[in-house]
Design brief:
Layout (H helix, E strand, L loop, with lengths): L6 H14 L4 H4 L10 H23 L1 H22 L7 H15 L4 H15 L9 H6 L4 E4 L4 E5 L2 E8 L2 E8 L1 H9 L6 H11 L3 H13 L3 E4 L9
Antiparallel strand pairs: 1-5, 2-3, 3-4
Helix pairs in contact: 1-3, 3-4, 3-5, 5-6
Length: about 240
């Protein structure tokens, strides 16, 4: 007598079959044999569709990697990634995020490219901060805080790094960022006051004029933004 399966059990069996490209014996008793396509062929349709959809998504998300490797090598890299890392997410974006670590392990020479591709996607979809001060408002307040904008992403690669940011709704990037600027940007991942920056300058042995000059450039480029302090909150 065949076992009675609950819907969730059937879904799990199909998911396992699609991801592993196998035919679990328990699934044979669930799927109806119907000509002209047998059970194995029927599952292959879903298995192929699953792989094709993931490859299309990764190709869309990482065009620089495909261009650097060319189509055949890119397909090989993506195929091995999909086989070694079956998707556990209903959202394709969450699956693409796993590709970053995989490239870092398998093709570390492509690290800058994979993060440029990924950060451009993230930067494009992040909302502007609601507490952002305009240039006029900055000039009118006695105290303000500075911080990376939510649409700014930084990554250290070797001794330098890269920035991806959004300026006037256009995605831009800079690579080979100097260690000093990179250290300042990491420090600005949290809200900082001018007093914080003076302390940072002293502790890091940075010229404070360098920090002020860089802040002006970063504000103009919309890499960082200014906001009013909230009474009672500490930012040190």
């Amino acid at each position: 007598m065949n076992k009675f399966y609950k819907l969730r059990e059937i879904q799990n069996l199909i998911q396992m079959s699609v991801q592993s490209r196998s035919l679990p014996q328990d699934l044979v008793h669930v799927i109806v044999e119907k000509s002209p396509i047998n059970i194995k062929q029927r599952l292959h349709i879903y298995q192929d569709a699953y792989t094709i959809r993931l490859k299309e998504s990764l190709r869309d998300d990482f065009p620089r990697i495909e261009q650097a490797l060319h189509v055949e090598l890119f397909d090989n890299l993506v195929d091995t990634f999909i086989k070694s890392t079956p998707s556990k997410y209903p959202n394709l974006a969450e699956y693409s995020a796993l590709f970053l670590n995989y490239v870092e392990q398998k093709n570390p020479e492509l690290l800058s490219l994979v993060y440029l591709d990924w950060y451009e996607i993230l930067s494009m979809h992040v909302q502007e901060p609601k507490d952002q001060l305009s240039v006029t408002e900055i000039q009118q307040v006695d105290h303000f805080l500075v911080q990376l904008k939510p649409s700014t992403f930084i990554k250290q690669i070797g001794l330098s790094g890269l920035i991806v940011y959004r300026q006037n709704q256009e995605i831009k990037h800079m690579i080979e960022i100097s260690p000093d600027l990179l250290a300042l940007l990491f420090y600005l991942e949290s809200k900082r006051s001018i007093d914080d920056l003076v302390k940072f300058s002293t502790e890091s042995n940075f010229n404070f004029n360098f920090i002020i000059q860089e802040l002006q450039k970063l504000i103009q480029s919309e890499i960082i933004y200014c906001s009013k302090p909230i009474e009672g909150e500490s930012y040190v």
